[in-house]
C-alpha cells in the first residue's frame, strides 16, 4: 500500500467513525408509560412488568439507549386513577401499557390520541374501551384475560375438586361493569350444579371481613375470587379468611394459590405482557392501535395447592390433578 493510499484509507475511516458515533448518540429515545393498578411490591406485577421489559429488549428496545419507561402505580385506589392517568399522559409518552379495565378507562379520559395497549381486561367492548375485538378503532387495543362465559368454569372446577360445596360467595368489584358480567356467567351454571350464590362487593376490608365471616357460619361454603385491582389489593386478607374458616377457593391466577388458595384457573398473565411488548414495538414502528385486533388468550393454566387441599380435608380427584399445569405441595 502506498503512502497516499494509506492516508486516504485512514482519512475515510476517521470521517466514518464520527458519523457512526453521532448516529448512535442521536438515536431517538421513545417514551413508554406503564400504568399498573397495584403496588410496586406485588410479585405478580413485578413478574408481569419484568416479562414485558425482557420482551422489549429482545425486540431491540433498550432502556437508556432508545427507550425510557415511566411507571405509575394505582395501589388499588380507583378514586385516584384519573389523576394518576392524567399525570402519566402529561409526560407525553409515545404509547402506554395498562392492566385492567379501570386503568384503561382512566387513561382514555385523559387522552384519545396516545396509543394504549391493555392486558388483563375481560370485556373491552362492553366496557366501551374498544368498538369491536376485530376492529378496535380509536387509540386502544390489547389482550383479553377471558370472556364472560369462561367465569362459569370457575364454579365447575370448584365443584369438581370440592363436591360438597353447596353455597358459594363470589368476591367482586361491582364498580367495574365486567365484574357484573362475570357474576352473570357464574350464575348461568349455578342451578345445574345445585349451588346457591352470594355476591360480596369489595368496598373496604372491614365490611368484606364481616360478610365473609357471616357467610362462613353456615356449612358447605366456598369462595370464587374474581380478578380485579381490589381483589389483588385485599388478596392476603381474602385467603387468610378462607383458611381460617375452611373455605375452598378458586381464583383466576396463581397468585391466589401461592397465597394459600386451593385452586386457580385462568390465562397466563406473563404471556399477555410479552404479547403487549410486540404490539408496542409495532406501534413505535408506525402502526396504529385501531388496526391491531384485540386478542383472546390461547392458553390457560390450572394450578392446585395440595397443602391447602390437605388442610381442608379434600382429596383432589385424579382427573383434576391430571389436568393441572402446576401443583404446589
Describe this structure in words.
With 329 residues, the protein is of the alpha/beta class. The strands form two sheets. Strands 7-6-8-9-10-11-12 form a seven-stranded mixed beta sheet, sandwiched between helices. The radius of gyration is 24 Å and the shape is elongated. The longest helix is centred in the first third of the chain and has 23 residues, at 3-25. 44% of the residues lie in helices and 19% in strands. Helix 2 packs across helix 11 (269-284) and helix 5 (152-161) packs across helix 6. The chain has helices spanning 3-25, 43-58, 81-89, 101-110, 152-161, 177-193, 205-216, 229-233, 235-244, 254-258, 269-284, 306-311, 318-323, and strands at 30-36, 67-73, 95-99, 116-121, 140-144, 167-172, 196-201, 221-225, 249-251, 263-267, 300-305, 326-328. It has two domains: 30-146 and 268-299, Rossmann fold, CATH 3.40.50; 148-267 and 301-328, Response regulator (Rossmann fold, 3-Layer(aba) Sandwich). It has 13 helices and twelve strands.
